[in-house]
Design a protein that fits this description.
The complex is a heterodimer of chains A (about 280) and B (about 425). Chain A has about 280 residues and is mainly alpha-helical. Chain A contains 13 helices and two strands. Chain A has a two-stranded antiparallel ribbon with strand order 1-2. Chain A starts with a helix and ends with a helix. The chains are: A mainly alpha (about 280), B alpha/beta (about 425). The interface between A and B is large, with 38 and 46 residues.
């Protein structure tokens, strides 16, 4: 018997992983160092030229700013609302189970479908939103409103996901802690900030990892809602990369943008994981 | 159980062979030299049965060929993506495929299309409308056959125009005048709606103003985008919303279906759209049934109406194993007979001129027959392999104009600079 049989048993899984994730990642990295235009049969190694161009590309920085704005705003709103909903639903009341399932509905609808639905609701002529507000706002057509409308839709859609994870976190907090705090005469707010929140920290960090990564790569919701308009004010990095790669077939530069997204996401993940590890230790 | 490292590796090796064996595809036995060609296309409008009958008819007449139709997602962006990935990978899984007219030069330049001059020699091309033929020619050779055609048209409320004694507008100024007069007397109506969301449709709309004012984007391969003609045309487009106020701001998010919906509920006097909307307006239960008229899009004084050309072409995959059979299939699908069937059943507008004088077609579809002038005057979007890149540049610029983020002159300068950069990419 060899000393490391586990390596052998892991080999098939590693091979599959290498084939389906590591190889493509390396290939995209390789592509990003090329000037590669499919339609002209041009494929030339240009080193870091694409990255140099990226730094001077206004459209890239615009997309970067939009993505960052979208991520920060939507994730913070989802977190606050998600925790609030979870805490409310954690209380004992009649119909709790039903309520929990109902809350999950937005999360269960496929993104493209809900984006299409919101596109109609945001319509300034016959959309229900303006009707309810008695307003006449061009939600998706105004440079100020459009990105916020996208954030709002994302919050509507993914808050339930946050709430679900936080609810699971609440379940494992021992009830004794609450009881003894109550006996000591602690106020509800005090209990929430001194017991609930600290004990929820690991769950919150996991929620943050999931949500930040998803939000940073946002594509389908905004692509359906505004197509990046008006005038690219809602174009995110993923939409820009898609346009370069599949609309205009600039595989070199498109890969450069994708690699940049990959590294941003990587950095965010490392930061979160560090925080999480410190928390657990 | 496994005793030595050698045996372990052997087992692993045998196992992987077993797995790989499963990937081997079995090739079906060939019957009397019959060839199967695969036809890829988007989802067809209306009843699929008509299309199947057409394929059966082809197979009856060509017993040596079997046709397998394969449907792609209905979004044209997704179809484009599918073709790019597969053709780049030199796939021979499909032989004939349907292309949006704007992809033909791009695919031809990439070397993914077979030259089809064989089935469309110069003397046969005159039977088709000029614009779709022009749009399929790249460096003197023709790379796809026009299958069906589309062009922008003006929908108007016949009843309202008659009530106030107007005839359909010939110039854009007329349109503004009629729209303002009627909205003044019938409050609550929109004057003129069109498609202004940041997408391909916005480029089609903007080009109609530019072309009907003598402007263009490219001329003989050179950029002529930053011109006075274009500036005035785009200023007019902006003025429709903010100065004349005949167009509501909501068009900056509108696509075809948004405007079709608004017009269909009787809330607009004029609408720019493609011919597909007609049948929906004339359905039983439609609020505007019998109240809608269609005419050529207006132009600026001294110029011609310039609807943007749309439509789909059939091409042959360069890597196809059965190009001769594919040619026969395309010849059949674009024939007088097949186009007539498709027009009568699913409403695809024929690319052959003569069909617009066909008595059966005129009787069954008087509307289609009346579109002849619009198709005759249609103007293709810039015919260049760079078109998709140019459109990517123009979409945000036009969107910026109608959302008042940039002045038309600024958009023209910025767009010009970016297109110039693109045109140099090849060097």
């Amino acid at each position: 018997m060899s000393r490391r049989p586990h390596v052998l048993f892991l080999a098939p899984a590693m091979a599959v992983l290498a084939a389906v994730t590591i190889y493509p990642i390396i290939y995209v990295l390789w592509l990003s160092l090329h000037r590669r235009l499919l339609i002209f049969n041009i494929s030339k190694f240009t080193g870091l030229d694409n990255y140099g161009f990226l730094l001077r590309d206004d459209r890239f920085w615009n997309a970067f700013y939009n993505t960052a704005y979208f991520t920060v705003l939507s994730v913070s709103l989802e977190l606050v609302l998600g925790i609030a909903i979870a805490v409310l639903l954690d209380r004992a009341f009649k119909g709790k189970g039903t309520m929990r399932s109902i809350v999950l509905i937005p999360w269960a609808i496929p993104t493209v479908v809900s984006a299409k639905m919101w596109e109609w609701m945001y319509n300034s002529d016959f959309g229900i939103l303006n009707y309810l507000l008695g307003a006449n706002i061009n939600w998706l057509g105004s440079p100020i409103w459009a990105i916020n409308a996208a954030v709002f839709m994302d919050v509507w859609k993914t808050t339930p996901f946050v709430a679900l994870l936080v609810m699971a976190g609440l379940e494992i907090i021992p009830r004794d802690l609450y009881n003894s705090a109550k006996v000591d005469g602690a106020s509800r707010w005090y209990i929430f900030t001194r017991i609930t929140l600290p004990l929820l920290k690991p769950v919150i960090l996991i929620v943050l990892i999931f949500r930040t990564l998803d939000a940073f790569r946002v594509f389908d919701a905004i692509y359906v809602l505004t197509g990046g308009g008006p005038a690219n004010t809602t174009e995110t990095l993923s939409i820009y990369a898609y346009n370069m790669l599949f609309q205009t077939l600039q595989f070199g530069y498109g890969s450069t943008i994708s690699v940049t997204v990959f590294f941003c996401v990587g950095i965010i993940t490392i930061l979160y994981v560090r925080l999480l590890r410190r928390e657990i230790e | 159980m496994i005793r030595s490292k050698g045996a372990q590796i052997l087992y692993l090796f045998l196992f992987s062979i077993l797995v790989l064996q499963g990937c081997n595809r079995e090739t079906p036995p060939v019957e009397n030299d019959q060839v199967t060609i695969v036809f890829k296309h988007g989802k067809l409008a209306g009843d699929p049965e008509a299309f199947e009958t057409l394929i059966e008819k082809f197979e009856e007449r060509n017993p040596d060929i079997k046709v397998k139709g394969e449907v792609l997602p209905s979004l044209s962006d997704e179809q484009h993506q599918f073709y790019v990935i597969n053709l780049e990978g030199k796939s021979s899984d499909f032989d004939v495929f349907a292309m949006d007219v704007i992809w033909v030069p791009e695919f031809a330049r990439a070397g993914w299309l077979r030259d089809v001059s064989n089935i469309l020699p110069t003397d046969k091309r005159a039977a088709f409308f000029k614009a779709p033929i022009e749009a399929a020619v790249f460096q003197g050779k023709i790379y796809a056959a026009p299958w069906y055609i589309d062009a922008g048209v003006l929908y108007y409320r016949k009843d309202l125009l008659e009530k106030y004694g107007f005839t359909p507008p010939g110039t854009w100024e007329d349109l503004v005048y009629i729209a303002s007069e009627i909205t003044r007397r019938e409050p609550g109506l929109y004057g003129f709606i069109w498609q202004g969301k940041q997408y391909e449709g916005l480029v089609c709309n903007a080009l109609e103003y530019m072309h009907s004012h003598g402007g263009d984007i490219l001329k003989d391969g050179r950029i002529v985008f930053d011109s006075i003609d274009n500036r005035q045309a785009l200023e007019f487009m902006e003025d429709l919303i903010y100065k004349y106020r005949v167009t509501p701001e909501l068009v900056t998010t509108a696509v075809e279906e948004t405007t079709r919906h608004i017009f269909g509920t009787g809330k607009a006097i004029f609408m720019r759209n493609w011919p597909y909307a007609w049948n929906i307006f004339e359905r039983d239960g439609s609020i505007v049934k019998g109240k809608v008229g269609v005419s050529l899009l207006p132009s600026f004084p001294g110029y011609q109406s310039s609807p943007t050309l749309g439509g789909w072409h059939l091409g042959i995959n360069k890597y196809s194993d059965h190009p001769k059979e594919a040619e026969r299939f395309i010849e059949f699908m674009t024939s007088y007979e097949a186009q007539k069937t498709l027009s009568l059943t699913v409403g695809y507008k024929p690319t052959r001129r003569k069909l617009y004088r066909d008595s059966d077609l005129i009787r069954a579809q008087p509307f289609t027959a009346k579109l002849y002038d619009a198709f005759e005057q249609a103007i293709p979007r810039p015919i260049t392999p760079y078109y998709m890149m140019i459109s990517q540049i123009l979409q945000p610029e036009f969107s910026a104009i109608i959302s008042r983020i940039r002045k038309p002159q600024e958009a023209l300068e910025s767009g010009s600079k970016q297109i110039e950069f693109i045109l140099q990419l090849e060097d």
